[in-house]
Amino acid sequence: MDIDAWVWWLIVAAGLGIPLVLTAMPELGMFAVGALAASVTAALGGGIVAQVLVFVVVSVALIAVVRPIAARHRAGQTGHASGIDALKGRQAVVLERVSAAGGRVKLAGEVWSARSLDEDQVFEPGKQVDVVDIDGATAIVM
Asked: Residue 45 has what DSSP assignment?
């Protein structure tokens, strides 16, 4: 049984694609695309030297171009705050008088116990306050 060269390149591409999915290493995907390009070259009648050259050039070009772009994109992301960190800095509405001793606010659609950051500050119902911290289940506001 004689298998054409382009089929071998497709097998190599699939062989590189499987570990790509399992390990999430994007470089393997770039090599898989290089193997696909070599498969096309083989299907069009290119010799083994042309196939290997296309594989190397496409793979190296993708790594040289895509990796720095992906690294810049990844470095530029600050990440999204979640949980308690997402509540810090938000505004809340006072439902029950808030002082250093306690009170209640509506924060992100939920009722939270709250206390003022400054012991001398008192916030009356209806006033908007800023959440500066979360201590357990209590919002610290100012």
From this structure: T
Spell 105-134 as b/e; 16+ CB within 10 A means b.
bebeeeebebbbeeeeeebeeeeebebeeb
Q: Among 95, 105, 96, which Cα is nearest to 140's? A: 105
Locate 76 and state its tokens.
Answer: 């530029």
Q: What is the dihedral angle through the alpha carbons of 46, 41, 12, 26, rounded to the nearest 10 degrees?
A: 140
Beta strands 102-107 and 91-99 are antiparallel
Helix ranges (H only) for 77-120 are 84-87
DSSP state of 118: S
Which H or E element spans position 19?
helix 5-23
Q: How does pLDDT run across 6-61, given as a tens digit for each residue? A: 999 999 999 998 888 888 788 888 999 999 999 999 999 999 999 999 999 999 99
pLDDT in tens, 87-96: 898 999 999 9
Does this model's pTM top 0.85? My answer is no
